[in-house]
What does this fold into?
Amino acid sequence: MSGVPDHYFTADPASPDERVERTVRLAGREVVVETAPGIFSPGGLDKATAILLEEAPDPVPTGAILDLGCGWGPIALSLALRSPDAHVVAVDVNARSVDLTHRNAARLGLDSVVACAPGDVDPELRFEEIWSNPPIRIGKAALHELLRSWLPRLTPMGQAWLVVGKNLGADSLQRWITEELALPTERVASSKGFRVLRVTR
It folds into this structure.
């Protein structure tokens, strides 16, 4: 609908699909990626994701890792650059985001990255790690449903790394995951108004 701004959680953005090349720093190196309007953080690497990538430890070297809400792919690309032998699954409801992540992974030669819609992930697949800058602005009920769907898919020794703004409910979300999903959650870092949370089985 013209005149109505896209949300990054829109499945098919109405804004023009105008691809723009941007130079960003991921996994300690400068890389060139494509972004576009109608997705999350089209201007490059957002502050919250940068904090997550800086504060969380290196990803597991092998196994399956999920990037939940991939946008143009900064988390998935960083995971694949840091753990080239891991299988990185990047999901987003936004079809443009999925395409951008796929194209950016191909551009960087990261054939371990698979970008797809959430419904295209094998329901039997379990993840050693889940990484996410979760889409807080979809609303609490939808966010809780999203996390309820994916966090229990961690392996028995798996863990998730989430970044959430303090003023967007990081502390209450930490309690909710611990109490409602029975997944122990701790704050491992706090920087520039954002919390980095570690979720374990």
